[in-house]
């Protein structure tokens, strides 16, 4: 199962001339994803646009598969020390460095991809990026939108929190996400991603949450028969650059980076939308049971996590919380 893919090679700028500025970008995607998956399309678009906009005066050297750094600590340290200039970190992995992305981790606040994208692209998103910059010295160049997180399991359809009660569900090790699933009645596990397939296969976990793109790429559908389009969280990853490095660039060079980041973000988003629907159709053909929640069922889930919402409100402050709720409501009304 999967998409038919063109094959793109990551450009090698190791021998670029002394008059060419080389920006080193460390990413988690595999080399085979370059230009094909949503994240790979973002990376390729960024690489291509930087070279085009600069007429070859600036190029981006991509280091895939976490070659330069894998943990958030290693990534942040590498950026701060200048070991490389750019990388990407998922929204759930910033907790030790900033609360800036707490608004993205509010469960059942964003019912769909469009709402999450609108928030991240607007004033609320600007505030998140500004807080990251203030807290870490890292500048957000763009973001990968990899879809809404869904819930898979090996035994039954899920329509309500009652259906989840006692299920051993693997979630990301983010305090907000852990609190939400515990409030929904699940037995939460934080199995490492690298061990997740085996844990599902052996029954150590009953289920897990991830975007459709990840469920297919990691072949979780081979050991999980049911998927609920829970849409409890968007799945975003921030593409960041050391601000010290950014400030060392000329205004023209900064403009190349900014424009390429914007173009790459938009390309990733559109690819994610197109890819997700194709993969859902393929999963259905593969006899995977896919459950879509009604508006009423989704509301029950939202109403079942009041303590988690209160935790998020406390983290960002009541004024910011109210602004977030108003922005989400406005985004939905404009959809």
TrEMBL record:
Protein origin, superkingdom: Bacteria
Protein's cellular compartments: Cell envelope
Keyword annotations of the record: Receptor, Signal, Transport
Keyword Ubl conjugation carried by entry: no
GO CC annotation, single: outer membrane-bounded periplasmic space
Xref: Pfam families: DctP
ATP-binding as UniProt keyword: no
GO biological process: transmembrane transport
Gene3D superfamilies membership: Bacterial extracellular solute-binding protein, family 7
Main location: other
Family: Belongs to the bacterial solute-binding protein 7 family.
Official protein name in the record: Extracytoplasmic solute receptor protein yiaO
Species this protein is from: Flavonifractor plautii (Fusobacterium plautii)
């Amino acid at each position: 199962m999967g998409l038919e893919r063109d094959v793109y090679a990551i450009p090698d700028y190791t021998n670029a001339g002394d008059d060419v500025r080389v920006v080193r970008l460390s990413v988690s995607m595999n080399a085979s994803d370059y230009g094909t998956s949503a994240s790979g399309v973002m990376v390729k678009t960024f690489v291509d646009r930087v070279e085009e906009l600069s007429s070859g005066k600036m190029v981006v050297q991509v280091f895939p598969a976490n070659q330069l750094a894998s943990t958030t600590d290693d990534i942040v340290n590498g950026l701060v020390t200048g070991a490389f200039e750019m990388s990407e970190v998922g929204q759930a992995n910033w907790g030790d460095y900033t609360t800036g992305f707490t608004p993205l981790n509010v469960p059942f606040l964003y019912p769909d991809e469009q709402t999450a994208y609108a928030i991240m692209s607007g004033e609320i998103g600007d505030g998140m990026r500004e807080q990251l910059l203030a807290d870490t010295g890292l500048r957000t160049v763009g973001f990968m939108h990899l879809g809404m997180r869904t819930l898979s399991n090996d035994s039954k359809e899920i329509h309500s929190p009652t259906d989840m009660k006692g299920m051993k569900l693997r979630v990301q090790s983010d305090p907000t996400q852990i609190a939400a699933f515990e409030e929904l009645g699940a037995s939460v596990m934080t199995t490492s991603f690298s061990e997740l397939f085996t844990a599902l296969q052996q029954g150590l976990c009953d289920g897990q949450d991830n975007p459709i793109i990840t469920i297919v790429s990691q072949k979780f559908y081979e050991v999980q028969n049911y998927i609920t389009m829970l849409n409890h969280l968007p799945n975003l990853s921030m593409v960041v650059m050391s601000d010290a490095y950014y400030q060392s660039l000329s205004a023209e060079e900064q403009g190349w980076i900014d424009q390429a980041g914007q173009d790459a973000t938009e390309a990733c988003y559109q690819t994610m939308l197109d890819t997700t629907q194709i993969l859902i159709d393929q999963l259905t053909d593969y006899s995977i049971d896919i459950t879509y929640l009604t508006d009423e069922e989704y509301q029950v889930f939202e109403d079942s996590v009041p303590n988690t919402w209160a935790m998020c409100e406390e983290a960002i402050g009541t004024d910011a919380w109210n602004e977030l709720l108003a922005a989400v409501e406005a985004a939905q009304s404009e959809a």
